[in-house]
Design goal:
This protein is of the alpha/beta class. The protein contains 19 helices and 14 strands. It is 46% helix and 16% strand. α4 crosses α19.
């Protein structure tokens, strides 16, 4: 099985550059990896010790971030290397100030794993959530380097729990410890013979809970909202916008709406603008305009959504109306506001739990969305009570980061 896996990886290594000619994201994926080893040879300090954090993309990076922040405080003698699998993660965070070195992860071949670890020589490797690469984990084990899975989440339909999943189960055996999000993950790992598990929760709760402590002031948001009720629709896809648009175009309520599309390509922003019948302005064109005169603001930039949520009364979080995957519901929930999502969220335990607590609404279509919005806008007490449930949900689930830090402090010779 491992020989087939390695063969498939080698084929992908040869085929991806060709595919990249027709796909911009794949081009970034392949071009970025060409210089990984040169970058490591240049930027890795052989006299220093590194903690290696690997995240697939932006979401996993957000889970890694609170741990990185804490290890920089608690263990300043170590430097931090961050690797990404996807271009969306690397391209957005390649200059993040908390990391000493940031690169793509080379494809998971035995040769790449050996060369990578020979250059980095990490003290500990942290893999986030789903990132499990057999050759890297094997080589880490061969070198007696501790490997930890952080904010792990397992489901019974994954390959590890299938009769044909021997290779991936063996990869799991290379982890020194699993820090998992929920009891279901604990039980699944135990069912295949693992007991080196801690039910720690999800570090994203720690990440978003800290957002309230930061300076979230945005002058343009205050000017636009102008003390009116505000709905923020974050990380929306076209399927989400089809749910939102009938309400936006027909509502007579005094409500301001901020839309932050997941993709901010010019052609897609234009299509969205053409569909909106209210007075609309883009963030990029806000200068020399009185924003209070507009009803809809399109946030055609990145990096501001977390702060914008601090100004809203209601949040719609995109991704679950289609099949792209639900985006982060914890970011708005931490500000104590009700959250609305689409119907496809069964693989997101935090959404399932928050809905059970009545702090989140799931809608299948524009009619259901309209019904929920009207009730939330018209009934301030109901809106605030629902938001209070969301805020409490965040506060009651923090602590995963400290659990990991406490484990690190107990490792002989680490601190």
């Amino acid at each position: 099985m491992k020989s087939l896996y390695n063969l498939a990886t080698k084929i992908a290594e040869k085929a991806l550059p060709l595919a990249g000619r027709f796909n911009h994201k794949l081009k970034l994926f392949t071009e970025g990896r060409k210089s990984v080893f040169d970058k490591l040879e240049t930027e890795i300090d052989p006299a220093s010790q590194y903690l290696w954090f690997h995240a697939a993309s932006l979401g996993e990076f957000e889970q890694a971030l609170p741990i990185i922040e804490e290890v920089k405080k608690e263990f300043p003698e170590y430097k931090v290397l961050i690797t990404f699998f996807s271009p969306s993660g690397y391209e957005n965070k390649k200059n993040h100030p908390l990391a000493d070195v940031i690169t793509y992860l080379p494809l998971d071949t035995p040769g790449n794993a050996k060369r990578f670890l020979e250059l980095v020589k990490p003290k500990i490797a942290f893999f986030i959530k789903y990132e499990i690469w057999p050759n890297f984990l094997t080589e880490l084990g061969n070198r007696n380097i501790k490997s930890l899975l952080v904010s792990g989440a397992f489901r019974e339909n994954q390959i590890y729990f299938k009769p044909y999943g021997g290779l991936m189960r063996k990869a799991l055996s290379r982890f020194d410890h699993f820090f998992v999000q929920n009891e279901a993950s604990v039980e699944l790992l135990k069912s295949i013979g693992f007991n080196n598990i801690t039910l720690s929760g999800d570090t994203r709760f720690d990440r978003v809970s800290r957002q309230i402590q930061y300076d979230n002031k945005l002058n343009f948001a205050e000017e636009f909202i102008n003390n009116e009720t505000c709905l923020v629709a974050g990380s929306t896809w076209p399927e989400d916008e089809e749910i939102l648009l009938p309400f936006i175009n027909k509502t007579l309520a005094e409500i301001k709406i901020i839309i932050a599309p997941h993709e901010i390509k010019e052609e897609k922003i234009k299509v969205l603008e053409q569909k909106i019948k209210k007075r609309t302005i883009r963030y990029s064109k806000k200068e020399n305009h009185d924003l209070a005169n507009f009803e809809v603001l399109i946030l055609d930039t990145i990096g501001l959504l977390g702060k914008v949520y601090s100004y809203t009364n209601i949040a719609y979080v995109g991704g679950a109306a289609g099949t792209s995957g639900l985006h982060n519901i914890l970011e708005p929930a931490t500000f104590g506001i009700p959250v609305i999502i689409g119907k496809n969220y069964k693989n997101f335990p935090e959404a399932i739990r928050l809905r059970q607590l009545a702090g989140l609404f799931s809608v299948e279509n524009s009619s259901e969305f309209n019904e929920v919005l009207i009730k939330l806008v018209a009934n301030k007490d109901y809106r605030e009570k629902t938001g209070m449930i969301a805020g409490h949900f965040i506060n009651s689930n923090t602590g995963a980061t400290q659990t990991v830090i406490n484990y690190l402090k107990r490792i002989p010779g680490f601190s």
